Amino acid sequence: MRFIWAGLGILSVGLAILGAVLPLLPTVPFLLLAAFLFSQSSPRLHNWILSHRQFGPLIEDWNRSGVIRPRAKRLATLSIVAVFGISLALNVKTTVLIIQAVVLSCVLIFLWTRPSR
Tens of pLDDT along 48-82? Predict the structure, then answer.
């Protein structure tokens, strides 16, 4: 069972990396999932993700108190605005734009209602 948890954790890290470059694919939720999966399967992988220079502090902040750092909020907001702007520039169908606007608005509401410190 530990191999399954570890494999799913590695898959989650891969999806998080893809999420860093692909619009609408989240990064942090996959990192949080990976941290949980690694905690169930491999102390070494769990320690690796928690001590990672980029990801570790974000995971620790969330685990400790549900905090999302202001810089992460700003970057997420900029990427959401950019994705929606690209959709507008590409003349995406109105129904898709409406769905996208609703989903992205919900993400922004969630993001900005979390504590920053």
Answer: 999 999 888 888 888 888 888 888 888 888 888 88
**Alpha carbons 54 and 77: distance in angstroms, whole number:** 19
d(CA 56, CA 9): 15
Domain co-membership, 117 together with 71? yes
In b/e form, how buried is each residue of 10-34, taking b as 16+ CB within 10 angstroms? bebbebbeebeeeeeeebbebbbbb
User: Which of these, 100, 107, 102, lies nearest to 86 by C-alpha position?
Assistant: 100
Residues 2 and 45 reside in one and the same domain: yes
Residue 23: band (very low, low, confident or very high) from pLDDT cuts 50, 70, 90: low
Domain tally for the chain? 2
Whether residue 75 is found in the same domain as residue 60 = no
pLDDT of residue 7: 94
